[in-house]
Design goal:
two-stranded antiparallel sheet, 10 helices
């Protein structure tokens, strides 16, 4: 199965390419996804389709360090079972829009920097920290790629993935600026200084979404006293113990 291990990353990349090129068409997605069975065997044109990459030269094959997988090999049989698995093929309709959760996961990681799970925050404090995380994300999500000062080449960062046992690289973005922080501080101080009613307020108005408004139980009616429930249980069973 060493042949499959060499092709693993390329097959995964091919799947994401199929999703991006599907443009909402499930048939197109399936046709291009199944085409990987031909590509890995060195067949780039077949009766019902062809690969969409440019022509490959011998040097390309040598540099990729990937040997074609023979059609009658055990590795190809395993790959067919994976690619053509009925349950998997039925699920492809969910991928035709090529939606990826990477940005959402990055945002959740950013929220943890502002509101760590290791610390218990009050509702107002937690809400404020989440808002700060949202501002940070929206301000910096579209940052440009960083370049080296010497030759203006794009900067890359390398990292090791334990699950795939491979080194990968990702582009480095320019540093965050946080220029909005002084403005937030100025507005907060201004609101506090000009709050003339603060000395007359005994308590702050509570937000309707505050957790304290959540019922203690899911029951639509308040619970009766425990003693009443115990007496009711005893009268039903006719015993002195439950």
């Amino acid at each position: 199965m060493s042949l499959l291990r060499v092709w693993k990353r390329s097959i995964i990349n091919h799947f994401w390419w199929c999703c991006a090129e599907a443009d909402g068409d499930e048939v197109r997605l399936k046709e291009r996804w199944i085409g990987v069975l031909h590509h890995v065997s060195g067949e780039h044109e077949w009766a019902t389709g062809r690969c969409h990459h440019s022509s490959l030269t011998e040097s390309d094959l040598v540099e990729s360090n990937k040997s074609p997988i023979p059609q009658d090999s055990a590795a190809m049989q395993v790959l067919r079972e994976i690619v053509l698995a009925p349950k998997w093929m039925k699920s492809l309709s969910y991928y035709v829009k090529c939606r990826h959760t990477g940005i959402l996961e990055s945002y959740h990681n950013l929220v943890l920097k502002y509101a760590s799970k290791r610390i218990s925050f009050g509702y107002e404090a937690f809400q404020s920290r989440c808002l700060l995380a949202a501002i940070d994300h929206n301000r910096h999500v579209a940052r440009e790629v960083a370049h080296k000062v010497s030759n203006r080449e794009v900067k890359f960062h390398r990292k090791y993935n334990k699950s795939s046992a491979q080194w990968t690289v990702s582009k480095v973005k320019v540093e965050k600026d946080y220029v909005y922080i002084p403005e937030l501080m100025k507005r907060a101080l201004y609101a506090r200084v000009h709050d003339t009613a603060i000395t007359r307020r005994t308590e702050l108005a509570q937000n309707p979404s505050h957790p304290s408004h959540i019922a203690d139980t899911i029951a639509p009616v308040p619970p009766p006293p425990t003693k009443e429930l115990v007496d009711r249980q005893r009268s039903r069973t006719g015993k002195d113990h439950i």
